[in-house]
Amino acid sequence: AIHVAREKCVRLHREAASLNDHSAPQEHLRAAARHLAAVEKWLIPPKPGASTSTFFKSLDPEELLAELGLSHLAEGEDLEDFLEYFAASIGVGELLVIAIPCLMQSKTFRHPGTFYITSDRLCFRSSVLGMEARLSIAWSQLEWARLIKSESSLHPVRLCLKQPIDIDAVKVDSFDLMIFDVGILAQLHACVSYFNGTGLFDMVPESKIEPVEYPASPGIGEALESGPRARMSAMTPEEMIADLEELSLVWELQRRTTIWHSDWRAPFLPHDYQKAIKWMAVEDHYVPHPFIPEDIDVDEAAESEEPPIREVKFLGRRRTCQWHVVVDESSDADGWQYAVDFYLEPQKWSSEVRGFSHVRRRRWQPTFLPDVSTDETPPTRMSRRLNSTLMAEKGVSPPQVVLEADLGVVSLELIKNDLEMEDWMGAGHLMAMQFKDLRAYNIELGPWLLGSDAGQGSKVQGKLRSMEMRVPVPPAPMCPKESRVTCTWHVVTDESRVLLESVLMSLDVPYGTCFNVIKCDTFRVDANTGHTLFERRLSLEWVKSCWVKALVEANVPKEIKLDGLKFVEVVKDWAQSHAVDNSVKSAATAATRRSNDSVKSSPQVRSNDNSTRSSRR
Questions:
Q1: Which of 139, 414, 455, 569 is 20 to 30 A from 84, alpha carbon to alpha carbon?
Q2: Distances (CA, A) of 356 to 258, 363, 484, 497, 506
Q3: Pairing of the two strands 400-406 and 264-265
Q4: How far apart are CA 332 and CA 395, in angstroms?
Q5: What is the reported pLDDT for 383?
Q6: What b/e sequence results for 282-296 when a residue is b if at least 16 CB atoms lie within 10 Å of its CB, and e otherwise?
Q7: pLDDT at position 551, please?
């Protein structure tokens, strides 16, 4: 009876369409035929080996298009790609309906690719940097498909399977398709309704539909581990794969020792900072590439001739990879690009080395091998104990003590809290007072970095931050009135001391780029007097030789001692201002307490209290 009713609906729809009878409920007849076909399919399952299209053999392609509300079946490159990758399993009479660009996501991966819907089955293929993932499931294996809730601008559709399947060596019983276009979402709804009998908007128990958060723009590390960043709703699979390949590039950075030398090495200047590890990724600035193991030795990585990476977590699992240099029209024969500094803009780089080419970079791209490891334990490397000071880390000459002073009674905890604050430039902060005393301006202060945030550039304990500024220069022959200064600040604390360290280079002073001035200020409490003691140590790091080395080593300690004496006075003034503030607060609190006590003890208040108690009785 259901079969007869479905054929009658199909016949009435054809007649109304041929007569152009707009009074007939054509859409309702089409929907009724589709719904009756789904019920008939459910009551009479297809025989083993029979395709889904066999059940609908009475419909030719034109009728199928009419039933689905489509203008044409998939063709062109979509059809060619489908035939290339899935030809071996194509069934008799199978029709490719649509090809959908999407992200396929499970709990552990997010693959960019194309989802193919045919009259027999559902197929998916993704290929990124030699890593390929495929699936092919019959419509009979699909339990249901539903649109799920999400804060993302994309449209996630969850497909629940009757039995688990393997996707990229991961067993899943459901997965999500991230659909970019509402129009494609409507086409998918029509196909699921027609071939499976239930649409994307039918009811499903809440226990089976859990809202999932899908970050629209994950960071580089998350994107490489799980899948690409869907930054635009109109991105095609090719654009997503290109974006993922761009993120996987590892940039090798090098700096020339001097413009008169032809040897290159890992970046070594103070303001290079994290770039010292040499293997970087590019976001809004250079950062250590997330593929680099967290426990790798920085010197070992900098000395490596190729990315020191053999296995990475990529698209949900650990994979073995090989590296090759990218060579194109923007580079020389070895893949190098040259510039004055480590710019982000591609147009500032040249394929030829020039007189003022101080730095160079090149790209390494991975190719993932088929014999991958499934062990989730990251590879370990020999790591060394972190040093407590930059002086010890750099291995410079033994520091000399240039100043010792007694600061009086100053809270070590107060110094620690102030130096570790993010906002050094706020009113009343110690470093803001110090910069004011130096008459520094055009100050650009970077954020604190520590632990995993500092990446492989952090080779010491504590916290690090970079800074650029302009400061006046004391009168001296051939010296300008002011100079640009790059600085790396280092703060490390424990229960017994606070250490403030800085590495400075003056960029405009003659021969100022030949050496770094490393100052290490230590605050500790004298157990006998309870006073806070201050000690300044100095060391010079020579990055290249010059004829004024002896002169610099003779004069710099004197200047650093005078600077230390001024800093001691700044610390005392800062501590005194905090002591005054605390005294004012204490006095105000005491006055408020006395005022409250006097009010409570007044006759009027006592009378009111007695009246209140009487009324309660």
A1: 139
A2: 10, 21, 19, 44, 19
A3: unpaired
A4: 36
A5: 36
A6: beeebbbbbbbbeeb
A7: 85
- Let me know how long the chain is: 617
E-strand stretches of 59-201: 96-105, 110-118, 121-128, 131-138, 142-147, 155-167, 170-179
Please state, in angstroms and rounded to a whole number, the distance separating the CA atoms of residues 287 and 280: 5
Q: Looking only at Cα atoms, what is the longest distance across the chain?
A: 108
One-letter amino acid identity for 448? Answer: W
What does the block give as tokens for 403? 């100043």
Closest by CA to 150, choosing from 121, 176, 174, is: 176
β-bridge partners, 161 = 142
| Block mean pLDDT (10 aa), the chain, length 617 | 82 81 78 73 58 48 77 85 81 83 72 85 78 82 81 77 80 82 80 76 57 48 48 52 70 83 82 80 80 74 81 65 86 91 89 86 79 40 47 65 91 91 88 91 84 46 85 83 88 88 87 87 91 91 81 89 93 85 57 58 53 51
Q: Which residue has 């490397």 as its token pair?
A: 381
Rounded CA-CA distance 138/140 in Å is: 5
407 backbone dihedrals φ, ψ, rounded to 5°: -85, -5
Long-range CB contacts (< 8 A, 24+ apart) of 26-32? Answer: 30/66, 30/67, 32/5, 32/6
Quickly tell me which residue has 């240039």 as its tokens. 402
Q: Whose CA is closest to 518, among 502, 495, 497, 499?
A: 502
Rounded Cα gap, residues 202 and 206, in angstroms: 12
Are the C-beta atoms of residues 120 and 96 closer than 8 Å to each other? no
Q: Mapping DSSP to helix (H, G, I), strand (E, B) and coil, where does residue 575 land?
A: helix
Residue holding tokens 């034109």? 62
Tell the residue number behind the tokens 């859990």, with chain if given.
Answer: 210
For 415-467, what is the HEC assignment? HHHHHCCCCCCCCCCHHHHHHHHHCCEEEEECCCECHHHCHHHCCECCEEEEE
Residue the block writes with tokens 């590019």 = 282
Tokens at residue 384, please?
């060394």
Q: In whole angstroms, what is the distance from residue 165 CA to residue 133 CA?
A: 13
Cα separation, 324 vs 369, whole angstroms: 13
Q: Which residue has the tokens 């900072």?
A: 273
- What is the model's pLDDT at position 610? 54
